[in-house]
Automatic annotation (TrEMBL):
Residues 29-60 have a biased composition (Low complexity). Residues 1-23 form the signal peptide. It comes from Corallococcus macrosporus DSM 14697. Keywords: Signal. This is Lipoprotein. The lineage of its organism: Bacteria, Pseudomonadati, Myxococcota, Myxococcia, Myxococcales. Residues 25-68, 86-107 are annotated as: Disordered. It comes from the Bacteria. Residues 86-103 have a biased composition (Polar residues).
Amino acid sequence: MRLKRSFLLPLAVLSLGVLPACSDDGDDNPPGTDAGADAGMDAGTDAGTGADAGDDNPGPSTEPGTCPANTLLCELFDSGNDTNGWTPSSENASIQVDSTRTRNGPGALHVVTEDGHDERQRPGTAIAQWQKRIPAFETQLFVRAHVYLRSLPGAFGQMGTFFVLSNFDADFGGFELQVMQDSGFALDDWSFREGQGWNRQPEPIQLGMDAGRWVCLEWEVRRDSTSSTHGNTRVYVDGALAHDFTNIGMRAFNNFSVGYGFVHPLGASGSETWIDNVVVSTQRVGCD
């Protein structure tokens, strides 16, 4: 199991089918007339192997985001720096709502992780997240977010975490969706079920995560019944299936976290990421 217990404990304290592909109504090559946040440019420009930071700043969109009906959680980040019931957490990173860098205005979650942190030298993480309670997971859950990565993880073996599903109550356990240097996805399963551990999308990567543009990232979690101890979780990029992780430990997950960063930073720990239009639902919502 790769997730550090030292990362789980602060979080515990804080918490007391095929559908139509996405339509791309955003601007994947946004104008660069405004420079990124100074801290983000310094941290993210040399951080990874993704698209060159250059002038590829995610720019404003004129179309507002929407919240589909019957969702468990929907966050468009339109309340400015009001956390709107979320619990922020960060270590060697910053997280706030940015009203100038969005996919579908008026705001997006902006995460900047600091460069120069390496767990091989000293303990610590470089990650920031917003966490919120959700109804206990039953048999299916769908997460959708629009994500703009300045760069992919910059070191071999380093995983950038997007989403975490967890339970810190009696049914303790969780797992998280991650991305690797080669754009492939990984899953850290710390459900404390048989077969738990870390696994990744096998090479060669046919479809992975992109840097330097807005990506519709979807995460599907399923199990046969509420008593099933294992199930599967799929990840989609712009509506297309990238990978299906099987035999994943399941719990009655009741916390959801969104953000970005490295539980296991390896020196090239600087990054800059925007996340918009986050939806958690019991039905797939697609990319619009």
